Amino acid sequence: MIGLGSYAYFWRHSDRVDEPLTLVDEFADAREHGVELFQICDYAPLDAMSDAELRDAARAAREHGLTIELGTKGIVPEHLSRYLRLAEIFEARLVRSMIYSPDSRPTLDEAATWLRSSIRDFESAGVALALETYEQIATADLARLVTQVGSDAIGICLDPANVVARLESPTDCVAAAAPLVRNVHVKDFAFARQDGWVGFTYSGAAMGDGLHDYPALLEAVRPRERGINEIVEHWLPWQSDALTTITTERAWTLQTLDYLRSTL
Fold this sequence. Notes:
Largest sheet: 8 strands, parallel, barrel
Structural class: alpha/beta
Shape: globular
CATH architecture: Alpha-Beta Barrel
Number of helices: 9
Number of strands: 10
Order of helices and strands: EHEHEHEHEHEHEEEHHEH
Strand order of the largest sheet: 1-2-3-4-5-6-7-10
CATH superfamily: Divalent-metal-dependent TIM barrel enzymes
Number of domains: 1
Distance between the termini: 10 Å
CATH class: Alpha Beta
Low-confidence stretches: none
CATH topology: TIM Barrel
Mean pLDDT: 97
């Protein structure tokens, strides 16, 4: 299934715009785009919501006909337990996370121990835990970690854009992660020369205009055959002003959805 994630609304719900979108606003916008899946990912207000507010948000998602996935950072067992409880409230069947968080940087051995202590609860709840590929951990190490935990409830959230920062090839990332993928983050990316030809800027691009070989990812991972959801997000730099930025963000969302639908 194709879905939208919080990072597709990065600027529209930020405090840099005059009327930032609420989570429920984003649910409504997703449905207007014909989308039935939304990933609430690294969305800071979620952790400050009361139980009543969480239940209200979950009800709004259901009223909009949306399936919800959740996203956070970190694998401290207590933190994963909290997100498993949030998954119950939102009826989510997938939680995306990352090995490191701002407060925790476990070794791979520590990570394996923590994950083994948490994963049985995910199994019992019927919720998958998808650990994202990113620059702080080699994809090969992440794949070994997931394999070591030894559960069908754990896999990889594939985002090959992230690993370029550790000089890892996106193609190699896709190949190493493919058998273990449970979730895909969809965004394009590109390098651009800085002014004066003194280096490059690496950032997002409109889908289909950058370096991402998404057809190769589809061939390697086969997400549609395996029931793996594809979540649209963006790396859109701030443009000249708020109006230009949010207009561009909307346009990138439409272009990405059109691109993905053309591959179905």
